[in-house]
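Margin note from the TA: students keep mixing up input and output lines. Inputs are the sequences; the output is the structure of the whole complex. Example:
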Amino acid sequence: MSTSLIPALDPAPLPGPPWLFQVLWVLTFFIHLLFVNTALGGTLLAAFAGAAGAGRREVRSFFVEVNSWGISFAITFGIAPLLFMQVLLGRFFYTATILVGWAWFGMLVLLTVGYYLNYVAKFRLRAGKDAAAVVVLEAACFVAIAGIQVTVNLLHLQPGRWEQVADRAWAALGDPSFLPRFLHFVLAAVAMAGALAAFVAVRRAARGGDAHSLQGMARFGVKAALIATLLQLVDGFWLLLSMPEDVLRAFMRGGAATMAPLGIGILAGVLLLVVLAQISDPLAQATKVRRVAELIVGAMVFMIVTRHELRDVYLARARAGEQVTVAPQWGPLALFLVVFVLCVGLTIYALVRAAKERPSPGEEAA
Amino acid sequence: MDYPIWNLGLGGGVLIGIVAIAHVLVSHFAIGGGFAIAAIETLAVRRRNPAMRALAKRSSLMLILVSTVFGAISGVGIWVTIGLVQPAATSALIHNYVWGWAAEWGFFILEVATALIYYATWEKVKPRTHLLIIWLYFFAAYMSLVIIQGILSFMLTPGRWLETHSFWDGIFNPGYLPGLVLRTGICLLLAGAYLTLAAGREPDVPVRARMVRLLAVFQVVGALLAYAGYRWWEFALPGSVKAIFLGSKPLLAALASTRHLVLWALAAYLLVALFALAAPRFHRWPTAVAAMLVAFAFFGGFERLREGARKPFVIRDFMFSNGIRVSEIADLNQRGVLAKALWAARGSAASIEAKGRAVFRAECESCHTVDGYLSIRALVAPVDPDMLKGILSALHEEGKEYATGKYSHQGHVATEKLDYPLMPPLVGTDEEQEALAAYLLTLKPSHVAEASHVN
């Protein structure tokens, strides 16, 4: 692998211990991914749901409504992992993005269009109008963004491919791992969104909602999650086999540290499939529906850890001999922690107040 | 310089400018709008005034669409753009200010959450609860400005950071407080201008006039604060920065013109705001739109001024606009710039012109394109070979001024005394300098004509 084009390490010291950046990166990426999966998978389900059939309109309305704020949180929680990743791997990341510069920049346009289309769909649905075409376009924007993200991700891991991509940008899509990795990402999003739809339908039914349409919504969600997980198991092995041989070998030789998270993630996926296959009447099997949601979140956690470890394996040779200096900025770090705790606390406080302080009948409302 | 160069016909700086100006307009509106809506709803609750309540409600959808949608995306957009155009500077900033940005992110979570809760709870919560939410929103939005202003102003006036490399010295740099006052004024004047447009939809004329007068107070206070902050900001700039656009013979006439535009736009805005205060009944959509446009002209002009005044640096006295650090000039003069600029150096061994092209890519292409923005072909057209060599030698010599200058909080080098105060010095070996000259001469029309004739 040619590593001669890797930019030099930034001479400024790391402003905190590397492990702390790793932890914050993984943690915030997990939260980011929860919203991303809801936005991407939810929009795809809303596009596929159509309006005919019991519960289909509910699925579309649910995701369009949730995404009107969920996309904001996907973006907001994307900022933090982007920050922490740049501290550790900026030289790989910047190079990868520059090599596919227009696509990376175009992601902003797609995101803006996709988000505003979601608002168009929301207002159309609220007015009782059809929003199928709008939602399909929105889904296309988000799928394209997923493709760009996967491209940059694979490229930043493999400096040996940079020169080829610099000469011909489309070569970025020629990575044998591109398609299985892209599918892995999209299928996970669809599975999580399906589980979410089923979970919400069960909760709404428990609160006295229309059982017929909610049963339809829950069934649609379970079916989507089942198909996506089934395909995921096949795609997961395709992804493993598509990786460069040296990377796969090094990963397998990593012992419990690398194999345990992967193994648990796969096991969670298999269990998920078993539980999903057992659900025939979601509203009557609320516990199983909840179990599905738990297993998906669990699988995500272990797969994110695996993804993180895999990155280290990919970059091991390129980062060999990296002499990182560390000069922690304890005061600014404390500032961040205090602000973070304060802001999360105030957000919860505002949510609780908004939920509890409803005006009584006859009392003035805001 | 260590990175590949993203080729843009319009110039990377221009793209950063477009994205940054769009974002700052939106983000400052989001802060000022939050304050104005909070103040108006507070008055509406206290006075039991349904018209003011309606104005707050009408304006809140725009706040959501602007702040949580476009504000969030364009904020990420700045990251994306500066990472593509100025990766070395982005990396330097991240290494110094990651915790500052992370703290700002904490406030941003609160800002987005409260904006969404606020809009979703109209008619659904008690009035005081609703007020609590919008005031929390304003607190979060303003605090994110309090933090980010430190990083923005650092790039032009790094002050004592140049000596200490301390986070706090960098944040509380000489331009910090003046810029904060200026930006606070901008938040108010942008919000006042927009909400006046929204108030125009009120059908009851006396009620509308009262609202317009109230909003005119925001506008007048905003304009005065912005003016005070602007003057203070100019006063706080080091002499070498002032020389670029101030004085009887500014170094960059275009930037001096921008400064005039900025001040005239602010004066025009103040006049419209005073008109609204004195005759609110006659302040309808044409004058409100005019106020909005001059507010945009003022703020956009100021941002252009702030960016332009950094020349030839991207981080003043620390890193030039081509990504070369002041501290590495001596080393690169010895080793050669192509020893570091590995991406630019690809294919440079083929000929002396190819080597010169590589040096151009490494040192010049972050600002100059061959035929587009700041076209180098147009610049070398009137220059003869001896003159070109003279210019390059002078640029190379200026590198020594930077390399031997002493850091101080007043600035590193008196750039205005240099022959080429707006250009980074030419760094590298004599051989690279000759190669650059050879390449640039191939761009002259006479050379192209000769080459065609030979063929």
